[in-house]
Amino acid sequence: MRKLAALIWKDTILRFSGASELLFFLILPIVFTFLLGGGFGAFNTDEATDNRIRLLVANEDQSSLAQTLLDTLAESDTIRVELMNLANAEAAFADKAAPALLHIPAGFADEVLAGETAVLYLRQLPDNNNATIAGRAVYTAVSYISRPLSAANASVTTAAARYPFSDTAARSDYFTQSLTLAQDLAGDTPQRVTLTQPDDANIQIATYDAAAQSSVGQMVTWVFIPLLGTSGFLALERRRGTLRRLLTTPTSKTTYLLGVISGQYLVGLVQMILLVSFGILVMRVNWGSAIGGLALLLATFGLTAVAFGAMLGAFVKTESQASNVSIMLGMSMALLGGCWWPMELFPPAMQTVVKILPTTWVMQGLTDLVMRGQGVSAVLLETAVLLGFAVLFFAVGVLRFRND
Q1: Which of 7, 25, 33, 357 lies at a C-alpha separation of 20 to 30 Å from 48?
Q2: Long-range CB pairs of 64-69, under 8 A, 24+ apart, other chains included
Q3: 156 with 174: CB under 8 angstroms?
């Protein structure tokens, strides 16, 4: 135990001998977690804040039909209607204060009710994604209010074919009654499909949470890379010759590797605790209620990562090579493992291929715990797979270990 404690203390002092270590240990993880998780938006608790796309509207018709169109647009989840007179709206649009401008001309409702083609004027900034989204929202709203009008016109045409109207007023009254009925029926139509499940269902539906994805993914990324950097310690001591001298003492190869792994593993655990705490206290991420499952999964992940680093140390020749390989492998495996974006965005074939990576398994388990609210039993498979990785990496590291 004294030998292990001495090795752990030596490697910890060596690791933090330079201030640059804090960059990977705490600074970069916090910066990336904060920015990718929404930045200052994570601190905004004002429910009145509206981040929808701005749509300028100049309404010169002032009819009930135009108001219905405005009310429909106001219910959109993607755009925010701002009413202005035409001159001010055109000036604001010219200054690119908003990506789109909708002009409802006078006589719009009269043309619609007369069965004529009514025109709305929509202006959009070129090559602007927000303008495209705003345009789609307008088309959707127009389509929504057009359905009752089409039904009312069809009703009038059918009625006139059977019993001709006595005059224009009678036709207009019939159209108004048909339109009112069609609008009432359309108002009862659901605008979206809501997926529900029984209270006792075992399957839980996860909703995407940018802050949670960032907190979980960046924690895995920035813990994984330094633990792979364990390889640099082995390369450094081989170059200095201290490793060869150390092994001439009554210290076995396994004891030495265990000491190196234990020191970096404990530092990795401390880093994980700090980053999880940052996610909870600053980013306000709910890391789930299964504390035991979280501790088990993180402990196993740390063991796998440091064993991987020890295995790399048996292959690299210099500290520079170890550093480059650790960063390259760490970033690549984090990206492919779902740390930077949800795994569901990957093609199905890719989701299968990346199961050869330990990062995929730890992210799968953390997603179940943090975003789906599942318990310890949900991560037993992931824990077992990560342990298998750790045993494999450590075995290869011991077999390939050299001291010169």
Answers
A1: 33
A2: 64/109, 65/108, 65/109, 65/112, 65/113, 65/145, 66/104, 66/108, 66/109, 68/145, 68/183, 69/104, 69/141, 69/142, 69/145
A3: yes
Contact 260, 234 (CB under 8 A): yes
Name the band, by pLDDT with cuts 50, 70 and 90, for residue 203: very low
pLDDT digits (tens, 9 = 90+) for 103-145: 999 988 788 766 677 889 999 998 888 888 899 989 888 877 7
Please tell me the distance from the alpha carbon of residue 70 to that of residue 88, in angstroms, as a whole number: 18
- What residue ranges define each of the domains in the chain, with the CATH number in brackets? 2-38+210-399 (no CATH), 53-187 (3.40.1710)
- Phi first, then psi, for residue 33 (nearest 5°) are -60, -45
**What's this model's pTM, rounded to 2 decimal places?**
0.58
148: pLDDT confidence band, cut at 50, 70 and 90? confident
What's the pLDDT at 390? Answer: 94
What pLDDT was estimated at residue 335?
92
